[in-house]
Write a structure and sequence with these properties.
The structure is a homodimer of 335-residue chains. Chain A is an alpha/beta fold. Chain A is built from 14 helices and eight strands. In chain A, strand 6 and strand 7 form a beta hairpin.
Chain lengths: 335, 335
């Protein structure tokens, strides 16, 4: 037992030292664990940034699967349309997890949301990846302390939760564990910023993190309004696109309300509307997600966009969202 | 009493006839009642569309006030930057409500949210405006049946609720009353569509209408997350801009979740996540809007954007939001 403890301490001390060394020549090789929707998006983004990407998937058709995805994604990469074959040439396929992370500078894990599975994966990854490697999980529900429970050095593991599709949507929510070192956070921030992402570190972890909680709050009221027959699914989408969507793409909710308050700003806004806020929240809906509700929404959704193929709708979303992001973050000097 | 009832019937019958007549040469003259933020936005938009605009305001400095606003707005009009002086030349200032609406094809009312005040205004407007005129209220809280309670013919009054700033944000929520004729709704839709707006008719009225309810739901969770110390005001804005903002500018929430479900669409999404939805909603916040909460938000907001002037921040918002709207609705054929 003493030997195990001593070995663990030595490993932790070596790891702590690794955390304090500068990264050196930067990230060259990334391992992507899992080739579902999220893994595929990261793979495309990493490849488009010039990294060598090890794709770890147990799918027998992994190569064909990624190739098909790249055909779809290559047109909407942040740096502009890319040649899918040139991106594909940066990939290496490795079905064994330990071999996939050998020599990797960054590991981005995208396995199904199963804690036991991810704990086992991170135990393997932690043992096989170089000591300087950033170990990043795309989980949307699990926390670093739980994910790293079976690792010798959980201090270099972080949650780095992207939004779908990760090669387009800028946000990466960074969630730290009790043992995460500040240098690891800095390195992860530098890595994602270098890819053109917008990483934001949560000050503390909450279930669902931030963006999905906000999304869920809006969805609750959306379902309520459709259920109550105030608007249809298509009308609700149209309302959001033509009002708060465009507003929140340009400025966040707090700045929007600050400006809504006129020259007196958020203070004036709270003075005039603050008292009514709690009351207005009481009037918001809390719909049941029962069979009837789901049937109503599915039938209206079918009418709204059921006649168009997934690939076509996804490509349209990606193209529009890419243009929106460019409109906000791009050069201000357009005529 | 019989005479009054007969006169009312005759007036209603004449009004019904007016509703069924085609509009003829279209809208040439609009009266804008009130020159607050919303009235100013409508004035700029109407003028930029080539209408003659009667501005009704009791402000002694109404002309100088509108001129200042036009300097700010002229750069972010939907048709591209305009010459503020050319827009200004389309205005007529008339402090008397009855005279302002004489001969107007459209009246857009933007008085303070005071029912008695608006009822009196619409009684005056209904008596003085031509029988074919569309009578539109920008109210965000009151209903047509209440607004028209003192009118002889409330059937041509509609709520047409814009989002701030109305010359930029496309949405107009159309809310009808019990006596609103279908032709009036069609004419209002045609009028706003002709201005490049996105009018959406609510199937039934609910307090706060739709967009403000959705906004309020997201704000509740935003305040909760700041209050709980998960993120700061600035971080929350950054998260929204870089994730759900851009997403909802491109596709609405239902289509986004439909695509989030992959090729199986919304049906697959509900099968996998539907059961967890109600549970996740239980975990959302319901913060008090007490002194401490407001103080926390104001102090963080001060730090985030308190060092910049309202006009500068508003101009930046307007420019960004105009680019976002162009990115989604503009020609698809950009390289």
């Amino acid at each position: 037992m003493a030997t195990v403890a001593a070995a663990a301490r030595a490993a932790q001390s070596a790891a702590a030292e690794a955390h304090n060394k500068p990264r050196g020549p930067g990230v060259r090789t990334a391992a992507v664990i899992g080739a579902g929707t999220i893994g595929l998006g990261w793979t495309a983004l990493f490849a488009s940034a010039g990294l060598t990407v090890r794709v770890n998937s147990r799918r027998a058709d992994a190569e064909a699967h990624v190739r098909r995805a790249f055909e779809l994604y290559a047109g909407s990469l942040p740096g502009g349309p890319a040649d899918p074959e040139a991106l594909f040439a940066r990939l290496e396929f490795e079905p064994d997890v330990a071999r996939a992370v050998e020599g990797a500078d960054v590991v981005q894990e995208n396995a199904p949301e199963n804690l036991a599975l991810k704990q086992e994966l991170f135990a393997t990854i932690g043992a096989a990846a170089p000591s300087h490697a950033l170990l990043l999980s795309s989980t949307s529900t699990l926390l670093p302390d739980d994910l790293g429970a079976r690792m010798t050095d959980p201090g270099r593991l972080l949650v780095a939760h992207p939004f779908n599709p990760p090669h387009i949507v800028p946000l990466v929510e960074i969630v730290t564990g009790r043992r995460t070192g500040p240098r690891v956070v800095e390195e992860a921030m530098a890595f994602y910023r270098g890819l053109g992402k917008t990483p934001v570190v949560l000050r503390r972890a909450v279930p669902g993190f931030v963006a999905n909680r906000l999304q869920s709050a809006l969805l609750r009221e959306s379902i309520h309004l459709v259920r109550e027959g105030v608007v249809s699914v298509a009308e609700l989408d149209e309302i959001v696109i033509s009002s708060i969507g465009g507003r929140w793409a340009a400025v966040g909710p707090f700045r929007a309300f600050h400006l809504g308050g006129g020259p007196g700003g958020l203070r004036h806004w709270f003075e005039h509307l603050g008292a009514g806020l709690e009351k207005s929240w009481e009037g918001l809906g809390n719909p049941p997600v029962d069979e009837e509700t789901v049937a109503t929404i599915l039938s209206q959704a079918e009418e709204a966009f059921g006649n168009r193929a997934y690939e076509e709708l996804a490509a349209e979303r990606d193209a529009k969202q890419t243009r929106v992001i460019g409109a906000v973050s791009g050069p201000k000097a357009e005529a």
